[in-house]
């Protein structure tokens, strides 16, 4: 049986969390509402060749996310040290200003260069925001309430994450009447609300006086150097990067996969039966659920279940719960790309969420409880390294893989050439819509969904999820090794003492 630790009553855990814990959660809600709202619609906006879309290639989209990930996930290694040294509130205000600028630029993006610039601004603002908020949470918790506390924090993250895709799905309109810019301006407005709690409710924690006495360059050097001194934490961060690769592809790639390959009319009918006409803004013109709504099952499941699951697994060792979460997430991740039915894909996203709500809070808890008391923001900044590796290299990998093995436009070109003898050169410049029209004519008026089934059976675009899932499997194996290794090291001193006695 897995090892357990003593439970503290829930009422006592909540009572000892403190004022700043709840204010940090409030600011996290607004920030995540803006961020996840944009992230829900952005993959579709970037590659759409319909009215209002940017029409970028999957390689261009992958590069934008790659660069965005490096900025957003590596900058906290540095900004966390400055937060500890110069103040949490100052970091929050700077972050809000940069994020608002990035969202406004997204609303006016005209192509690859402007979207890349806007994404880097949002990445930088988010990077500066994370250490003070996560550091505040870590400072507010202790060993007795950390499991529940980080569960609550993750619940709040997903409240914003759940509301955002539905709200922003309505803001972006549909193919007939696209209003993409409304979504990005909406994110800027939501971010601006965070100035109120930051200035009027938040209590700035004491700064690290030792760090503050150093010159800025010295703070930078020490922030980077501190990570390499704590080799156990560094190893842990590198191993768990595979989980974050899967997580980020759920948001970055799965919406495109659903949009191209999944018949979500069954899920749309389910929504209509539950919500009536209220579901209309969540559906495409043919009644299919929009991709971002299916992805939203992840946040919905977490809102419902993360607190009881965090409470239940609070008695288990962090590494045991984390490893179990990684294994469940791997099953859901690969499964989400194996089906063409919307309800089945939704079920696999739910499975992924079960693993995520175990893995992600325990990850933050491990870093928060490992960090020295005066280095909470810095260590929570370090916690973004797996995001950087998983998100950046996941997109560097998934963009070319999807372009080669799963892009419907490319597979349609291959089918027209191999089955109907159409010259490949004549198809190079055609976008997806005219390619599908050409296939429909060749197939005696077949619908898009019928053509999808033919291409699916001929080229197996689902194989890309096995390729990406292999990284998650390697990460899971690495985590099992890390746990055994850390247990052996922890047991060594006791064994030596027993021998001496």
Write the layout of secondary structure elements.
Layout: H1 10-15, H2 19-47, H3 58-86, H4 88-107, H5 112-140, H6 146-171, H7 180-192, H8 195-200, H9 209-212, H10 216-229, H11 231-239, H12 241-252, H13 254-261, H14 265-275, H15 291-295, H16 297-313, H17 318-335, H18 342-370, H19 376-382, H20 385-405, H21 408-420, H22 432-442, H23 448-459, H24 463-500
Helix pairs in contact: 2-5, 2-6, 2-7, 3-4, 3-5, 3-10, 3-19, 3-20, 4-5, 4-7, 5-19, 6-16, 6-18, 12-17, 12-20, 12-24, 16-18, 17-18, 17-24, 18-19, 21-22, 21-23
Give a verbal description of the structure.
The longest helix has 38 residues, at 463-500. It is built from 24 helices and no strands. It has 501 residues and is mainly alpha-helical. The chain starts with 9 loop residues before the first helix and ends with a helix. The protein is globular and about 70 Å long. The relative contact order is 0.14. The protein has helices at 10-15, 19-47, 58-86, 88-107, 112-140, 146-171, 180-192, 195-200, 209-212, 216-229, 231-239, 241-252, 254-261, 265-275, 291-295, 297-313, 318-335, 342-370, 376-382, 385-405, 408-420, 432-442, 448-459, 463-500.
Mean pLDDT level = 84
Uncertain residue segments: 1-5
Helix content: over 70%
The count of β-strands is 0
**H/E topology pattern:** HHHHHHHHHHHHHHHHHHHHHHHH
> What is the rounded Rg?
23 Å
Name the beta content range: under 5%
Q: Helices and strands: which structural class? A: mainly alpha
**Number of separate helices:** 24
Describe the oligomeric state of these chains in a short phrase: single chain
Largest beta sheet, briefly? none
């Amino acid at each position: 049986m897995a090892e357990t630790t003593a439970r503290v009553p829930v009422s006592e855990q909540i009572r000892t969390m403190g004022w700043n814990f709840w204010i940090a959660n409030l600011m996290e809600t607004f920030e995540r509402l803006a961020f996840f709202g944009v992230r829900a619609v952005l993959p579709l906006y970037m590659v759409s060749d319909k009215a209002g879309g940017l029409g970028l290639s999957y390689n261009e989209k992958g590069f934008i996310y790659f660069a965005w990930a490096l900025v957003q996930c590596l900058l906290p290694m540095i900004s966390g040290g400055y937060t500890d040294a110069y103040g949490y509130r100052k970091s929050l205000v700077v972050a809000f200003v940069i994020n608002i600028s990035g969202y406004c630029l997204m609303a006016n993006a005209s192509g690859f260069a402007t979207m890349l610039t806007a994404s880097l601004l949002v990445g930088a603002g988010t990077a500066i925001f994370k250490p003070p908020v996560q550091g505040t949470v870590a400072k507010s918790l202790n060993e007795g309430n950390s499991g529940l506390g980080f569960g609550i924090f993750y619940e709040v993250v997903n409240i914003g994450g759940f509301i955002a895709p539905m709200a922003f799905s309505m803001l972006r309109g549909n193919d007939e009447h696209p209003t993409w810019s409304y979504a990005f301006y909406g994110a800027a407005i939501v971010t601006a609300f965070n100035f109120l709690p930051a200035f009027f409710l938040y209590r700035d924690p004491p700064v690290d006086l030792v760090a503050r006495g150093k010159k800025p360059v010295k703070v930078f050097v020490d922030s980077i150097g501190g990570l390499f001194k704590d080799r156990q934490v560094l190893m842990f961060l590198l191993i768990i990067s595979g989980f974050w690769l899967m997580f980020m592809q759920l948001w970055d790639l799965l919406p495109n996969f659903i949009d191209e390959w999944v018949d979500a009319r069954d899920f749309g009918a389910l929504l209509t039966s539950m919500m009536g006409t209220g579901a209309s803004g969540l559906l495409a013109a043919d009644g299919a659920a929009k991709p971002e709504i299916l992805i939203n099952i992840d946040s919905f499941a977490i809102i419902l279940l993360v607190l009881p699951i965090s409470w239940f697994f609070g008695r288990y060792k962090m590494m045991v719960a984390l490893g179990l979460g990684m294994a469940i997430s791997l099953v859901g991740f690969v499964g989400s790309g194996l089906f063409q039915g919307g309800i089945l894909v939704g079920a696999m996203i739910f499975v992924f969420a079960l693993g995520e709500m175990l893995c992600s809070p325990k990850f933050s808890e491990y870093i928060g409880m490992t960090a020295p008391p005066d280095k909470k923001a810095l260590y929570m900044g370090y916690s973004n390294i797996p995001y950087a590796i998983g998100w950046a290299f996941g997109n560097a990998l998934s963009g070319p893989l999807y372009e080669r093995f799963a892009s419907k436009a490319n597979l349609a070109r291959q089918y027209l050439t191999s089955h109907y003898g159409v010259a490949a050169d004549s198809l190079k410049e055609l976008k997806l819509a005219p390619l599908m029209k050409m296939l429909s004519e060749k197939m005696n008026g077949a619908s898009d969904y019928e053509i999808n089934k033919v291409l699916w059976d001929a080229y197996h675009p689902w194989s890309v999820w096995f390729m990406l899932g292999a990284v998650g499997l390697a990460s899971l194996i690495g985590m099992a090794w890390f746990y055994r290794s850390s247990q052996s090291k922890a047991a060594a001193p006791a064994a030596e003492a027993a021998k001496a006695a």
